[in-house]
Design brief:
The complex is a heterodimer of chains A (198) and B (484). With 198 residues, chain A is α/β, with parallel strands linked by helices. Chain A has six helices and eight strands. In chain A, the strands form two sheets. Chain A has a six-stranded mixed β-sheet with strand order 5-4-3-6-8-7. Chain A has a two-stranded antiparallel sheet with strand order 1-2. In chain A, α3 packs antiparallel against α5. Chain A is elongated. Chain A starts with a helix and ends with a strand. Chain B has 23 helices and no strands. The longest helix of chain B is centred in the last third of the chain and has 27 residues. The N and C termini of chain B lie far apart (50 Å). Helix content of chain B is 70%, strand content 0%. Chain B has 484 residues and is mainly alpha-helical. Classes of the chains: A alpha/beta (198), B mainly alpha (484).
């Protein structure tokens, strides 16, 4: 219908302005219609775009929720780069305090194995957490994988890792690589970090 | 400060490389004014060529650090400059055309016309829009799922790791990261991160804005070379502020950049079909290779574009030109081979899409409602005038009228066939797996191909002499690739 509208406007303009002959005349009219419509859309687009973006800049990253995972939600503009990045995770529901604490423990070149909760609401968490942990690389993830599937544990992947990270899983109930030696630190009953002794 | 300087340096290097390529292939002359006009085109060409070389380096195991890619930029820029210097000589003071810039307030006042005032208002509006857009693009970090799960994640990995470390790029732990996806965009991010000295995941979004501005400049320059009027320019102005672009571009997704490459590839391939200048074909190969190295949809669109051009030439029985086209398509294939070979060499990489289901008649008949759904979703997004500003309907009107005129008929067929085939493939992909694409993003390439169609076809429209801004300019010549 929109195309029919443009063609109708073209025919109308061709009748009004007697420039050119034959199909050239209609092409020229189509060009005039296109130019006029585009100019109008440009100015309205600038007006609307500038107003929306100025508003968006102040509130970008903001949310109607009062709290993002326990902490007050704040727009990105008012945060440091690290704070803004963590705010993304917090808005998803990730325990960003734990993730930041783990990130601070990892040394360059350290690898990790992540034991994730199998809860469906954590579906997107591993994608963000593995992004956040770069440049440290994962040897494996069990539990919620991030695409809706729940992956079983991999003892061989555990043995390649320097750390085992427990995200919303009680380390005492973990069965994948029982008997792993190492130092376990916990900041909550189900959030812990195991430094594997190799 | 280091971050800002690095950001600018990375982009200047890409521009240098592109201008060098354009000079080397003889597409532009070594004159300051011409180089300034072709800056947008030069930037996109430079980015495409340097990233394609970078992908090759990664695949063969050469560490891609800032200095190695900077060296590629300088070699391309310096080589092109040297070729052009031998051909055109150094520009002299006369070539700067400073006389045209000697404006005094009195002269300005007496020469000013209503057209100048409108132009000034447009420029002011654009400047305000660009400034506000800049202030917004630099704020959010990688906040969208595909950004932190795919594009920025790979960009960060390439920044931290000097190569395609299998522990990251082949590790199934990182699914659904789409490890088979080409890596032009992540490599660009890594290059800019390295220039900045640290991965600024907020400022990197401004790179997408820079890319889009350069894209607009490239389209404008390519059309300007061909046209005697400027009545096509408002379409570019509308595109510059079109909401569908800015809603997506700031998220760091690859759809808009890939569609920009496709649009430029279509325009240059269309110009080659019409005029037969090999430099247009060379540019088309560069842009199509970049599109195919950005996203799968880009690869599909590029294959369809070359295929359609080939069929048109075949129908015209232009065997000699067909050979040239085959050569171009061959270079396109070769440019994509490194990444495809690398993916094939790692069978543990799992693809998210399984085309075999698309040939299973039982499955297809059991899901016969899906094509209709896909068409409805695509149509709804294309028809959303608040986002895409009547671009596709206008292009369809141009194409319908051009089909009636003999000189532009082939172009109209070209610009109609490619997006229609692309949409058919997208509908088939949806039929195979409805979770494969997002309707608001998948239409980007169709809308931007429509922009190319409008620009090309409108540049061929004869306008009254009073509207010819460049009576002696433009290079309108009715010939086809066979005559070139």
């Amino acid at each position: 219908m929109q195309t029919v509208g443009v063609v109708a406007a073209t025919v109308l303009v061709a009748k009004l302005i007697q420039a050119g002959t034959g199909s050239d005349r209609y092409l020229f009219s189509c060009l005039v219609v296109s130019a006029v419509v585009s100019l109008v859309l440009f100015f309205t687009g600038v007006d609307r775009g500038v107003r929306q973006m100025r508003e968006e800049r102040k509130t970008i990253g903001g949310t109607s929720q009062a709290f993002c995972n326990g902490a007050p939600c704040r727009p990105y503009l008012k945060l440091t780069p690290t704070g803004a990045t963590n705010q993304v995770g917090a808005r998803m529901g990730v325990n960003t305090s734990f993730v930041q604490w783990v990130k601070d423990q990892l040394r360059p070149g350290d690898s990790y194995y992540m034991v994730m909760t199998a809860a469906p609401e954590a579906a997107a968490f591993p994608q963000w957490i593995t992004y956040r942990f770069l440049p440290n690389l994962a040897t494996g993830i069990e539990g919620q994988l991030g695409n809706g599937t729940v992956r079983q544990g991999s003892p061989s992947a555990v043995t390649k890792a320097d750390w085992v990270i427990f995200y919303d899983v009680d380390p005492r109930k973990w069965r994948t690589a029982r008997g792993n030696q190492g130092q376990l630190q916990r900041i909550a009953p189900t959030f812990g970090l195991l430094r594997r002794s190799r | 400060m280091r971050v800002a300087v690095g950001f600018v340096a990375a982009n200047v290097l890409l521009l240098t490389a592109g201008i060098g390529v354009l000079l080397g292939m003889g597409f532009i002359r070594l004159r300051p004014g011409v180089i300034a006009q072709a800056a947008g085109l030069g930037f996109i060409v430079g980015l495409s060529v340097v990233m394609l070389v970078g992908i090759f380096m990664l695949v063969v195991g050469i560490p891609v650090q800032f200095m190695s890619l900077a060296a590629v930029c300088l070699v391309a820029g310096g080589g092109g400059l040297e070729i052009a210097r031998r051909r055109d000589g150094w520009p002299t003071f006369r070539h700067l055309e400073l006389r045209r810039l000697r404006w005094t307030p009195a002269r300005l006042w007496t020469n000013v016309s209503p057209v100048h005032l409108v132009l000034a208002i447009i420029l002011l509006a654009l400047a305000v829009f660009a400034a506000v857009a800049f202030s917004v693009y630099k704020v959010p970090p990688a906040a969208s799922f595909d950004d932190f799960a795919i594009w920025s994640k790979k960009g960060l990995a390439l920044y931290y790791i000097d190569g395609l470390d299998p522990q990251f790029f082949v590790n199934s732990t990182y699914l659904p990261m789409h490890q088979e996806y080409p890596i032009l965009l992540p490599l660009l991010e890594a290059f800019v991160f390295r220039a900045m000295g640290r991965p600024d995941t907020q400022l990197i979004h401004v790179e997408f804005l820079v890319f889009f501005v350069a894209f607009l400049g490239a389209l404008a320059y390519l059309t300007y070379r061909e046209s005697r009027h400027f009545l096509w320019a408002p379409v570019l102005l509308a595109l510059a502020v079109a909401p569908f672009i800015h809603v997506q571009l700031g998220t760091g997704y690859a759809d808009v950049p890939m569609s920009c490459f496709i649009a430029l590839g279509m325009l240059t391939l269309g110009l080659w079909l019409e005029r037969g200048e090999r430099s247009h074909l060379a540019l088309a190969v560069i842009f199509m290779s970049a599109a195919g190295s950005t996203k799968f949809e880009g690869l599909i669109a590029a294959i369809l574009a070359f295929g359609t051009a080939g069929v048109i030439l075949l129908a015209q029985r232009k065997w000699r030109v067909l050979r040239t086209a085959a050569l171009g398509a061959g270079v396109f294939v070769i440019s994509l081979l490194p990444w495809r070979i690398w993916v094939a060499a790692h069978p543990e990489i799992q693809s998210f899409f399984h085309p075999s289901r698309g040939f299973d008649l039982d499955y297809l008949s059991q899901h016969s409602e899906l094509p209709g759904q896909a068409i409805d979703l695509i149509a709804a997004n294309i028809a959303d005038t608040s986002q895409s500003f009547y671009i596709v309907p206008t292009a369809l009107a141009f194409i319908a009228l051009a089909l009636l005129t003999r000189p532009s008929r082939l172009l109209a067929i070209f610009y109609l066939t490619v997006p229609v085939l692309l949409l058919a493939v997208l509908v088939w992909v949806y039929w195979v797996d409805p979770t494969t694409w997002s309707p608001n993003r998948v239409v980007d390439s169709v809308i931007l191909i429509a922009v190319s169609a409008i620009l090309h076809l409108s540049s061929r429209v004869s306008v009254p002499a009073s509207l010819e801004a460049r009576p002696g300019g433009g290079r309108v010549r009715r010939s086809t690739a066979g005559d070139g």
